[in-house]
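One example given next:
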Amino acid sequence: MNVVNILLFILFFGLMLFLHEFGHFIVAKLFGIKVDEFGFGYPPRMIKLFKAGETEFTLNWIPFGAFVKLSGEEDPSVPGGFSSAAPWKRILVLLAGPAMNLLTGVVLFIIMFNIIGIPDPTRVVITDVVKDSPASQAGLLSGDVVTEVNGSPISSMDQLVESISVNKGKEISISVLRDGSNMTVYTTPRVNPPPNEGSLGIGMSNPFTEANIIQSIPYALQSTGQQMKAIIQMPYQLIAGKVPAEDARVVGPIGIYSMFNSAREMDNENAGSKNAFDQTFTLRFMIIITIALGLTNLFPIPALDGGRILFILPELLFGKRVPPKYENAVHMIGFILLLALMFYITAQDILNPIQIPK
């Protein structure tokens, strides 16, 4: 057991939860909604740190994240409290937590693109070569930049795919740039390749070029949107059989730590790699978890931010409020069910640990 990794995981996971709660806190204060307590970590309380205005800042024993206790959170009769605020204000307060996590995802993407650079869509690099494939037999290597096929310049992945596809069963010349030198190889794309290998047997991507913060922002926003889309589409992908059930398995803190630990190990193994992308496994994992935390909290599930927003919408749209006693009862049931689900998921993480390929 790696103590350093455990401490780093607690710091990372706690920070993600803290930023979520800080989003709720800052927007509530912006709208003049009273906040009774901002707690660092989870109860039971260790000590009261200080008091600012009506808000007590406390340090608690469970060292994960933070929590915000809004005044009148379940009672609309409390003046200046959450439930007595205008519905649009309550919705924005609830949205602020997930929005803070998604914004953090954007910032982490910006950091990553500053480390590895931004993709150059006008060039194509080979990222993987399948053993015993035509590409392997011709001597192509991961890292080769494809410049020409049969003497025709290649400036996009679609163009390379098309050039290979129309020449199945025919010998072709492929010119590449390797370590600053040009070279040409000859090979024949397969007509009926094995599943998931392709006619040539290569993986491809766009190479990366250095970028500053400003240049990284559009790519960070686009990548955050793509990650959100992938999470939303996951249930459909699972039902359609496009994703193995094991790859779509829901994990708890123990399972998340296992993946975090694996990412740290891969970064350590690749510490001497010339490819900066090979040293960002931990950072990429942090991005996925951060975005997933923000997005799943928007799902219309009772007790989550999305479920609470769902109960405010009738008031916002039709001026009719769901009676607080019914809303609170539904959220309590939802909270109990979520706790039960978390216990089940944690038990699965212990009894049937997630298998992480090396």
Notes: The beta strands are 35-52, 55-70, 118-119, 124-129, 145-149, 152-153, 172-178, 181-187, 202-205, 208-209. The chain has a mean pLDDT of 89. The chain is about 50% helix and 20% strand. The longest strand covers residues 35-52.
